[in-house]
């Protein structure tokens, strides 16, 4: 973040207001220890800035460039550079110091010459994109209260910035900062201002994050996300609605999800210095409430980045589909054990038919392996190899496929469940991969031991129903899988809370 301080006090370094400004900046820096802002200060009293001539050369002759050659050009460049501009000044006769008002007058090159028809007073639109910039007014006055004494100042900035588009920090009895005997009291006040700097930085950051919300991810119910910054003791609420997001500081309703995190950690995650899921696995932050929202984070935020991915890297083959892995095996285990010949023929036919469907589905290596293995086992039955041997071997082969994939970088279940968690981006999530690795290993173990009871059952009169019998335990396992996919990440997230 680039911070520009415009010191409008004629007293320069001795300014009472500047003491407040410096305390505020200390708070901002304290909240961003891992990513310190770039801060520059302009002492207006020491600069060569002449009054505006009202010639409109910056509109007609040299658009965007003032005809007066003085230090104002440097001020304009810094205003464009800054993400946050702090106007630091004392109150002079219910308004701004004269030279600071001159600086405001000389900002005309930053505006375009035509007027906006959709505003109440027909203001001039900015020449440059100023939408992401923040403005803060910090000022002291000699009155015992700032109330009503800054009306002309706020009226002016309401016109320049728009109501609600800037923040104020006004302090009465400013001369008390010069009294050494009152240092204990004034230091307490400065400590409050420093805390305000921390809060301002965290609130601004939270609003910037909320601005990335993608309304197309809305699923019919507002999501209430609380950001609990544990290191600075602040908590903000982001409400993700149908059309927009908003940040509030006071709330009572129960949140959907709460993220307990040091502010510095979440800043690093936002800057891409730390991967969010990896930070969670390292217990750098914790999550309380609905964890499914976290797994689908990229659907709700960073919509511009996501749009670029869709545009630059189209996926003509669509999503993966686990049915194409399971269908050949299910058909073989049921049909071939009811009638060896016709069941095997049906299984081979299904294996030949499925590849025709891949024109709209992304094919995986497991789809290919499944089709090949089922065809081989079907052929073994057609050449009269005993079903009591072939069928248990098929279960064992299925278990081997699952077990081996659990040792690979991307386990089998992750290839298919990623569709529900942001697509291929989920494969970069260590928590998602670990969850699926455990599930894949569990499925592999199940099918590695299935051949044992399969062999003994097939030696009985119930052998022809083995496919149906063996579908009961996988159905239970499927219920467990759905539960585990939600429970395990939430367990890690809640267990890491500090």
Walkthrough of the structure:
This protein is an alpha/beta fold. The chain folds into three domains: 2-202, Flavodoxin domain (Rossmann fold), CATH 3.40.50.360; 212-312, SCP2 sterol-binding domain (Nonspecific Lipid-transfer Protein, Chain A); 323-495, no CATH class. Helices cover 48% and strands 12% of the residues. The protein has helices at 16-31, 57-60, 72-81, 98-105, 151-161, 183-210, 263-270, 276-281, 292-295, 297-300, 303-312, 323-338, 340-353, 365-382, 387-405, 412-417, 430-458, 466-469, 472-495; strands at 2-7, 38-43, 84-90, 134-140, 167-171, 223-229, 234-240, 245-248, 257-261, 286-289. A five-stranded parallel sheet has the order 2-1-3-4-5, sandwiched between helices.
Structural class: alpha/beta
Q: How many helices in DSSP terms?
A: 19
CATH T-level fold name of the largest domain:
Rossmann fold
Regarding quaternary structure, what we see is single chain
**Architecture per CATH nomenclature, i.e. the level-2 architecture of the largest domain:** 3-Layer(aba) Sandwich
What is the H/E order?
EHEHHEHEHEHEEEEHHEHHHHHHHHHHH
> Ends: how far apart?
28 Å
The tally of strands reads 10
Q: What summary fits the major beta sheet?
A: 5 strands, parallel
Could you name the CATH class of the largest domain? Alpha Beta
Strand content: 5-15%
Q: Estimate percent helicity.
A: 40-55%
* Rg measurement, Å: 33 Å
**Mean pLDDT over the residues:** 86
Spatial order of strands in the largest sheet: 2-1-3-4-5
Looking at the structure, what is the overall shape?
elongated
């Amino acid at each position: 973040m680039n911070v520009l301080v415009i010191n409008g006090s004629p007293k320069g370094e001795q300014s009472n207001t500047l003491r407040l400004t410096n305390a505020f900046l200390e708070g901002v820096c304290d909240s961003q220890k891992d990513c310190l802002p770039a801060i520059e200060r302009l002492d207006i009293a020491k600069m060569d800035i002449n009054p505006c001539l009202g010639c409109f050369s910056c509109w007609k002759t040299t658009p965007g460039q003032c005809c007066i050659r003085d230090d104002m050009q440097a001020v304009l460049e810094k205003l464009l550079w800054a993400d946050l501009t702090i106007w630091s000044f004392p109150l002079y006769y219910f308004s701004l110091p004269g030279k600071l008002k001159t600086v405001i007058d000389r900002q005309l090159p930053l505006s375009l010459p035509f007027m906006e028809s959709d505003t109440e007073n027909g203001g001039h639109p900015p020449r440059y994109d100023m939408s992401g910039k923040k403005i803060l007014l910090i000022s002291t006055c000699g009155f015992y209260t700032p109330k009503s004494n800054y009306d002309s100042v706020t009226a002016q900035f309401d016109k320049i910035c728009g109501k609600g588009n800037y923040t104020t920090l006004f302090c009465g009895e400013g001369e008390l900062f010069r009294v050494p005997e009152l240092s204990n009291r004034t230091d307490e006040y400065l400590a409050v201002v420093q805390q305000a700097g921390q809060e301002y930085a965290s609130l601004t950051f939270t609003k910037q994050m909320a601005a990335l919300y993608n309304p197309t991810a809305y699923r019919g119910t507002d999501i209430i996300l609380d950001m609990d910054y544990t290191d600075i003791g602040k908590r903000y609420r982001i409400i993700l609605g149908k059309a927009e997001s908003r940040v509030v500081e006071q709330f009572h309703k129960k949140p959907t999800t709460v993220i307990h995190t040091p502010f510095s950690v979440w800043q690093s995650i936002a800057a891409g210095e730390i991967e969010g899921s990896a930070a969670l696995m390292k217990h750098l932050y914790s999550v309380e409430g609905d964890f499914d929202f976290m797994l689908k984070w990229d659907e709700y935020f960073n919509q511009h980045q996501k749009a670029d991915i869709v545009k630059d890297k189209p996926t003509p083959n669509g999503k993966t589909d686990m049915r194409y892995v399971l269908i050949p095996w299910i058909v073989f285990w049921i049909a071939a054990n009811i009638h060896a010949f016709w069941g095997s023929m049906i299984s081979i036919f299904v294996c030949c038919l499925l590849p025709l469907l891949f024109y709209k589905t992304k094919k995986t290596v497991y789809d290919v392996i499944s089709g090949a293995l089922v065809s081989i086992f079907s052929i073994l039955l057609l050449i009269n190899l005993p079903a009591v041997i072939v069928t248990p071997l098929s279960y064992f082969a299925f278990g081997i496929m699952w077990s081996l994939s659990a040792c690979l970088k991307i386990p089998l279940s992750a290839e298919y469940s990623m569709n529900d968690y942001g697509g291929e981006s989920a494969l970069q999530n260590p928590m998602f991969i670990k969850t699926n690795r455990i599930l894949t290993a569990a499925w592999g173990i199940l099918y590695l031991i299935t051949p044992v009871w399969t062999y003994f059952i097939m030696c009985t009169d119930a052998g022809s129903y083995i496919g149906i019998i063996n579908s009961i335990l996988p159905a239970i396992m499927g219920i467990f899988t759905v539960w585990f996919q939600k429970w395990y990440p939430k367990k890690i997230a809640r267990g890491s809370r500090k």
